[in-house]
């Protein structure tokens, strides 16, 4: 026996072939209430803060409102949510290069349309990215989706959750089913 509900939560009578629409649901995010926003990192040295702006878009190019974008780096954490137009903005400082890695921001993207967070990296166009060990494992198309564009007051970085312009997302070590090698073709 199959029962379905429409937007009014009505249940179709048992034993009929009548189908009614189920209510529209999403997975979340449920974490916005009381969760502090920290959309800026204050520099502890002479580095100048800059702004990263961008949009989070779905596979059809539509905005993904309510998406949480977190940047994580030794200098601090930022957390921002996208607005109705999918736009976000964070202010941070450029991280220092690490051994084998060009300066980059690690971004954690969480939206109700995904089963778990996605991870990508934002690289800066004015750095020696050809020395980065992660980027060396990726195709030129994958590297392009991780490169920010310079603006007058910082950088612009759009995130495409799926589709033809999908951003390059990285495996999250420790989660079951994630592949730790990012350069392999399926």
Q: Can you put this structure into words, describing what you see?
A:
It is a single chain. The protein is mostly beta strands. It is built from 1 helix and 9 strands. The strands form 2 sheets. Strands 1, 4, 7, 8 and 9 form a 5-stranded mixed β-sheet that branches. Strands 3-2-5-6 form a 4-stranded antiparallel β-sheet, with no helix packed on it. The chain is globular and about 40 Å long. The two termini are 39 Å apart. Residues 1-14, 20-33 and 174-186 have low confidence and may be disordered.
Secondary structure topology:
Elements: E1 50-57, E2 68-73, E3 76-81, E4 87-92, E5 104-110, E6 118-123, H1 140-144, E7 149-151, E8 154-156, E9 159-160
What is the tally of beta strands?
A: 9
Structural class: mainly beta
**Cα radius of gyration in angstroms:** 20 Å
Q: Any idea what the CATH superfamily of the domain at 50-160 is called? A: Aromatic compound dioxygenase
**Which sheet architecture does the biggest sheet show?**
5 strands, mixed
> What CATH architecture of the domain at 50-160 do you see?
Sandwich
Percentage of β-strand residues: 25-35%
- Overall mean pLDDT: 78
* N/C terminus separation: 39 Å
Helix % is under 10%
Instruction: Assign the CATH class of the domain at 50-160.
Output: Mainly Beta
Q: What is the string of SSEs from the N terminus onward?
A: EEEEEEHEEE
